[in-house]
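Two proteins, back to back. First:
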Amino acid sequence: MTTNTAYGAVKRPEKSSSPWAIARRKFLRNKLAMISTVFLGIVILLSLLAPVLAPYLSPIPDITKVNIGKMSIPPNDEYLLGTDKSGRDVMTRLLYGGRISLLVGASATAIVVILGTIVGSVAGFFGGAVDSLLMRFTDFVLNFPFLVFVIVLNTILYGIVDGLWVLILVIGLLSWGGVARIVRSKVLSERENEYVLAAISIGTPPAKIIIKHLLPNVLSTIIVQATLLFASLIVAETGLSYLGFGVPEETPSWGNMLAFANEPDVLQGKPWMWMPPALAVTFTILSINFIGEGLKDALNPKSQR
């Protein structure tokens, strides 16, 4: 931009965009990431609106009631996705199952990110004995037999605590090690910068330095990791529920619905019982991964603007 003065034209420097504005523009230009974002938004919206939509989509809106006279009906005009072996509408259970699978994934991801960020930032900032102690504990968590612990804990607490929240807590408490290591490595590199050393020299409390100075500079890494973790934890819930050790059977989830594929007659002759949740999981995981890759590229300052 130029302005005319008595001494001629003076060029004004253009205002530079913030890193977040640049990242937003790069993400919006990523067509695959944007399509995935729209798809995931539709899946979340349909799942949240399941109680409202169910009466309009099926004559059997009840997701738990057994209907003996309507067992194993193939898809038709009345039942868009057919019914299962208990006479329950597959479409209705698919919508409600999405709520549970997404809830487990999102809640467990929140626990993982919070614990991993706290442990990683404290270990990276203080270093020394604190770092060594926290990283050895992290190694223990990473090497813990995840599947065995989930099965044992669900068996012990069955009927005592809501199985859904037991699953969320167990997944969250056993999955934060990777995030802690990544955050620690980023904090270790950021800790040597002059602004952090200046804050330490004037006696700024460690908690304030971590929250105000260090975490904002590793936030982009945490966001990308959280997105990719969301997908992997949905897969974890699906796998555990498929094996019978995840979400309680009476609560519909995509993993519980896939469990019908354990029966040969259903797997070969009644694909409408397991194909919808299989496709829902597949496309949801793909969309989340594409979003994560889009965020990773957008938040990378070395990528092309």
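And the second protein:
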Amino acid sequence: MPGPTRQRERTSEEETETEEETGCPECESDSLVRSADGGGELVCEDCGLVIEEENIDRGPEWRAFNHSERQSKSRVGAPTTQTMHDKGLTTQIDWKDKDAYGRSISSEKRSQMHRLRKWQERIRTKDAGERNLQFALSEIDRMSSALGVPRSVREVASVIYRRALDDDLIRGRSIEGVATAALYAACRQEGIPRSLDEVAEVARVEQKEIGRTYRYIAQELSLGLEPVDPVQYVPRFCSELGLSEEVEQKTREIIEVTAEKGMLSGKSPTGYAAAAIYAASLLCNEKKTQREVAEVAQVTEVTIRNRYQEQIEALGIH
């Protein structure tokens, strides 16, 4: 006779997965969330039932109540980042010329540390390829700071540049051109509205080269970027013009209604957004001149007039 089959015991992870799949046992809701305070409790959002509470705390053993405490108690280094050519894994020698206790070091030690710093910088890049990557990533960082884009965009731009480098797309093109195109692609991918004109202002290459390189790497890397939505530019433009929430909401309505009628096809998103803001400001009695709107949106007054006429005709306003 065959022996009795032994059923494998379910682990806590499998039980958690099953509970997450079936939902809350109390109200049968699927809205289950895991708390982010380190305890890792599994809680139902609708009825508040704590489904699971005995989880491994993977956080630190110490507690901190502000940023300075957290910094002083932390015993780990900074996380790895794609924005540095070595991903932030190499060491750096500080330029303060002070010892661990904050006291100034002697002139002999200063000259020794100066030599060490120089050699440390040299050995961080082993060949010309790494030096070029270091330069490209520093360019991305410089332009990102000038444009005021968040850290996530810098990371994405660095990843795009590294992919282009791995696929040998840099050959025959300038490092600055590819770096700028990668940053522009990252802005579009992350939904951060920055026009080609704005990127070209902080770049060290011509706008035509940026556009050409961007189209090339987007096609070769299959980035699959969708056309920019003019609505993305509305909050920033309205803020710079000092317009109210009412105007911003009206602008969104104008763009949505006219876009549904096919007016957006082939039009510049910045010019389209600028014209909608101008129309909304007139309708809400917060008039701004075409010149004021054009300066903020970096388009011509002629563009605003043409788009404005098209939009009011599509809305049936005369």
